[in-house]
Write a structure and sequence with these properties.
CATH superfamily of the largest domain in chain A: nicotinate phosphoribosyltransferase
CATH architecture of the largest domain in chain A: Alpha-Beta Barrel
Family (chains A, B): Belongs to the NAPRTase family.
Distance between the termini of chain A: 48 Å
Shape of chain A: elongated
CATH class of the largest domain in chain A: Alpha Beta
Organism (chains A, B): Nitrosovibrio tenuis
Structural class of chain A: alpha/beta
Largest interface: A-B, 109 and 109 residues
Oligomer: homodimer
Function (chains A, B): Catalyzes the first step in the biosynthesis of NAD from nicotinic acid, the ATP-dependent synthesis of beta-nicotinate D-ribonucleotide from nicotinate and 5-phospho-D-ribose 1-phosphate.
GO molecular function (chains A, B): glycosyltransferase activity; nicotinate phosphoribosyltransferase activity
EC number (chains A, B): 6.3.4.21
Low-confidence stretches of chain A: none
């Protein structure tokens, strides 16, 4: 059993429901949509991510003999027989990864036999939720620090290994320059960054010796961590080393600051480096950073060229979850609506249309409409990405998605690019969709009164 | 390459440092310790967890030919040759999983050749940090809802698959009754819970029909979700169904509420059920719950028998990370100290002694001391758990750890069992440890002045 691709990555109730669906032969086509209910207060928009991993999961879903053997004593034989043959052979529609979106806008739709669409709920949500959470968080650092080198440093405090890997991917998609997590480089081809830890300096005891050893070992990528004992004293040692090594053709690419008042240290260190002839040596900062600290440092004019953003990025510290849902919108050709208090859904198969202020202009508003017989102006965001369980290969690489995402920030209305709360992007529900919701409520009232 | 057990689950700088260590033959014994720097404001204590997963990782760490082939063009051949033979053959000391602990107290110590101890940093931190985070969060719900059934419902919004699995394990360790995540049952033997989703009701349209179908399919575990349309109307249908099925020997074990004012609904539903003769049918609640909501509901006297705690548990919503570190405390027989501003460490190999108010009494205070020649009264918490890369099997099951953890809550001082901020548990640094830190600072000043 592979803990991250097993079909047992599901909630127990999916299996008890499946038993009941099979018993009643409820295997007609169901339509489920994934959407976010509302924005965290600290977010002005969302960035869709995780589709590729969700499609991988669907395409490869199989129950192994070992998994079936584990399930057998716990569930009836009819379920086990069904799961032996289980393949996901449904359709998937989605908006592309890296697309900006808003609450009530579906970013993924599953159209499949009810038991299939039900079983996959937990893991599909788990993937889309997390990568969207992180891409959305990362976009804020990208907007707060335009033109700066941004590196994901979050593995050690990410929530497990998969979170570290998916956070590296999602932040790169959203515009980060790369990650420190080696496996993310191997899995996704993301550029890797990293130099040395405090332990490296401590193991040498003499910081100057540690710097020189490192520089001679990595002459093409000399980035030195200078805060282990005293940041400015560290910078002075870098200058001495720079003189010594410069003669031998080794240049010091950068220094890293990781503690104290990063802005004040950066200014002093920049001065020390410049005075020592190291004008081209860059300053990289890390240590409890997030987009708010980046904005603060840059608006105070701190001479910092790049940032390692770690924990706050990988756990989305100020909003560690999104209020998202995966809901049945249609079954057996009939639209469905959940009416629970505060959690009512928009029924039916939907499309999202986005309007712009002219060609190349800013986003001007979205309409959530029914997919059929409810056409609107604007760019339709949802498209089919899987047919009968097979991915429709669109051949878009992660780097291409990243460039497209970065370009899309230019089309955000100015007021939404701020880190501050800025409500007001218009998302309209189409008249036809509202009418359908009302009609279903009226029908349900009849069911209840019967 | 297995994304959750690969040795490439490390930060890039670990590999660049390794190259340099090898070049300088810096392979003497290093001692690193993992500890938390400070408590989040919302926590009064921490619960250690994740050791078993960390030891698994260490014991099985191997570079596969595929991994080496990926690394080869990126790193020098001497590193690749070293990694081909790589095994972790160090010692590990730790405090047992489920133990309550505090900042500055190491919960794990690695004693190994410097390159080994360095390479494993990122993943060992990643595992210990997350499980400790979740066990600590879960303990609060257990304390807030004594005697209630508590179930982890968090998979869908956990940060990836591994987070969902480790959160199920850590919350069970901390006293939860089980999880909804099937794979957590298969991997760790955790009891599984779950009934039906709203989609099940919606697919049927007629809620009463859905209830009856489910009950007949699962006569031994009839728990019905009653809030899809109208909670009290749902409860009335449960009563009708209870009459009908009671005759046939099927009893309705419970109902689940998932929206609206859970306390008010629970009172009304309890009344409806009791009036209908279903006094033994339990009420289970879910929906945006955390320990604060549990306390509120129970202190208002809401007649709720169990809770599904989801997102808030699995992401530790009010404190989604811990300020933890893994630091070099000794190298080549000499204690080391990091002096960075606000991040100075206590050097050397340490032990933690815990005092109690008499046998069976409450915890009375801890002393962080040096392991050697610094004995104190109290229970020593650190013990060796791995020798030369092989686990010392202590044969303690997860269920036994869970029982021990539950018992340890009884020894918490009363003021610390509250959900509110309650500083003041005494953790003392021994005189010998303070003296060592001062001595190292003096020595370092000499290195700097040279």
């Amino acid at each position: 059993m592979n803990p991250i691709s097993s079909p047992l990555l599901t909630d127990h109730y999916q299996l008890t429901m499946l038993q009941s669906y099979l018993e009643q032969n409820m295997q007609e086509t169901a339509v489920f949509e994934f959407f976010v209910r509302k924005l965290p207060r600290e977010r002005n928009f969302l960035v869709a991510a995780g589709l590729e991993q969700a499609l991988d999961f669907l395409e490869n879903l199989r129950f192994s003999p070992e998994e079936l053997a584990w399930l057998a004593p716990r569930f009836g034989s009819s379920l086990i027989e069904y799961l032996e043959q289980f393949r996901f052979d449904g359709d998937v529609h989605a908006i592309p990864e890296g697309t900006i979106f808003f609450p009530d806008e579906p970013i993924l739709r599953i159209t499949a036999a009810l038991p299939q669409a039900q079983l996959i709920e937990s893991r599909v949500m788990n993937l889309l939720h997390f990568e969207t959470l992180i891409a959305t968080k990362a976009a804020r650092s990208v907007l707060a620090a335009p033109g700066k080198l941004l590196v994901d440093f979050g593995m050690r405090r990410a929530h497990g290994a998969e979170a570290a890997l998916l956070a590296a991917r999602a932040s790169y998609l959203a515009g980060f320059s790369g990650s420190a997590t080696v496996m993310a480089g191997a899995l996704y081809g993301i550029p890797l960054f990293g130099t040395m830890a405090h332990s490296y300096i401590q193991a040498h005891r003499d910081e100057a010796v540690a710097f020189e050893h490192f520089a001679r070992c990595h002459p093409d990528n000399v980035v030195l961590l200078i805060d282990t004992f005293d940041t400015e004293a560290g910078a002075a040692k870098v200058v001495s080393l720079g003189r010594k090594l410069g003669v031998q053709g080794i240049s010091i690419k950068g220094v890293r600051l990781d503690s104290g008042d990063l802005g004040a240290h950066a200014r002093k260190v920049r001065h020390i480096l410049n005075k020592g002839g190291l004008e081209n040596t860059t300053i990289f900062a890390s240590g409890n950073l997030d987009e708010y600290r980046l904005r603060e440092l840059l608006s105070s004019g701190a001479p910092i060229d790049g940032f390692g953003v770690g924990t706050a990025l990988d756990v989305s510290s100020d909003a560690p979850s999104l209020d998202c849902a995966y809901k049945l919108q249609e079954y057996a050709g009939k639209a469905r609506r959940k009416r629970s208090e505060g959690k009512a859904t928009w029924p039916g198969k939907k499309q999202v249309y986005r309007k712009y202020n002219g060609p190349g202009g800013c986003m001007a508003g979205d309409i959530v409409a029914l997919e059929e017989n409810d056409l609107h102006d604007g760019e339709p965001l949802m498209a089919r990405v899987m047919r009968a369980g097979k991915r429709i290969n669109q051949g878009v690489t992660l780097d291409e998605m990243r460039m497209r995402t970065l370009a899309s920030y230019d089309r955000l209305p100015r007021f939404m690019t701020s880190l501050d709360h800025a409500p007001g992007y218009p998302v309209e529900i189409s008249a036809a969709l509202s009418a359908l919701a009302n009609q279903l409520d009226a029908e349900q009232a009849q069911v209840v009164s019967v």
